[in-house]
Design a protein that fits this description.
- By secondary structure, the protein is mainly α.
- Among the domains are: 94 residues, 2-Layer Sandwich (Ribosomal Protein S8, Chain: A, domain 1), CATH 3.30.1370; 74 residues, GMP Synthetase, Chain A, domain 3 (2-Layer Sandwich), CATH 3.30.300.20.
- It is built from 14 helices and eight strands.
- β7, α14 and β8 form a beta-alpha-beta unit.
- The protein starts with a helix and ends in a 9-residue tail after the last strand.
Amino acid sequence: MTAIVIVADALVVVLAALAAIWLVGRRAKARLEKTQLDAEQEARRVLAAAQQEAEQRLRDAGVAARERLLSARSEFERESHEYRQEMLGIERRLDQREAALDERARTLDAQEKETDLRKRQLEERESVVAMQEDALAAASAEQRAHLERIAGLTSDQAKAELMRTMENEARIDAAKIVRRIEEEANQEGNNRARRLISLAIQRIAAEHVVESTVSVVDLPNDEMKGRIIGREGRNIRALETATGVDLIVDDTPGAVLLSCFDPVRREVARLALARLMLDGRIHPGRIEEVVSKVQTELDEKIFRDGEAAAIELGQPDFHPEILRLLGRLQFRTSYGQNVLSHSKEVAWLAGHMATELGVNVRVAKRAGLVHDIGKAVDREMEGTHLTIGRDLLKKYGESDEVIHAMECHHGDVDPRSVEAVLVTAADALSAARPGARREILESYLKRLEKLEGIANEFKGVQKAFAIQAGRELRIIVESEKLSDEDAVWLSRDIAKKIEGELTYPGQIKVTVIRETRAVEFAR
């Protein structure tokens, strides 16, 4: 019984399980059918949307294609219109050119006809002239023969005699005219030169201050001398070491002397000493500091002074290094004359004379201002101030005209321009003005006498002359004792001896003159 119950229960369970499985399968089938139906609906919806989008894109593409077609058509019509207009213009120009050619052809035809007419007239005239020439030749031959019979000379002899007489008369008249023109030209040249020089000098009225190698510094009291000397002289030694200047502290009341051949160093010492006295602190450390500061300020002042001089002359476009060298010239002297003032005066004189003559005023002024530029550094570089100045101007880009005018101012180079001659004349005028330069007369005369004495010591020397303020020595030798080759060696030997025995500024030009004369008298 129990087994039956168990079987029955198992059967019930199996039936229940089968029923459950059938129910689950039916529900799954229903869900599957629903999912398939939804998928088909979604597919139909997507397909419809794609069809709509495709139709819309097709419509848009059609619209864009029609727009491009219309744009291309408009562009084609515009270009066609422009091309037609251009062709019409070309056609009009061709018509005008054709009409001009037709008119020119008609003009040429008329000119050709006129030329033919003139040609015929000329041919007729030539025939008439030829007949007249033949008649004149026959008459001239007959007349010449008649004259030859009368004069007893042939035509060639008569022609030669006539030409000789006319040539002599022409030479005499020409000589008179040439002599008169030369005299008038010399007189006019001298008058004009005097007028130019007088006008230039009248416009320049510069004062001259004689430079010295000693500067005097005034002291507020005699107690300041002790402070300047310092303990055991340490302050004065420090100042002399820093500046390179000799300080002379003597019994002169209220003054200290500064002695130095270099005016730049002397000016540095003067300014530094004045500043130290004003400050009151005088000791070696302070002295070195003040001297260094004064040197820097003086360098700046030198550049400004050079720039001011160039601007004053209307030539501000110099190289900065040239402006600095110009500023240094105010501390350089030549025979007591301030070189910067002298250079400015030469520039003004050369500029005024160039204006009167109508030549290049700019070249004359620039060359006059820098003609002594080499003297700013001639104590630091080898060579004369002419060669140093020429090298400096070439280095800093000055023009060849200015350099040539500068190097001619002492006559060492032959001038090739009017401006060079004017600079030479202006330099001589500035140096020769009363009070411009000075030199101890005794030493000056001794130097000139020594120059001539050195030349006279050599054999074959007839006379020796020191000229150009001792810058040139001209020697006349006896031609029968010395040859041309000997004269060359003589000039070198004399120059070497002058270099070894004399002290002089700049350079001295030695010129040996050997002359041969042949004299005969016609009796």
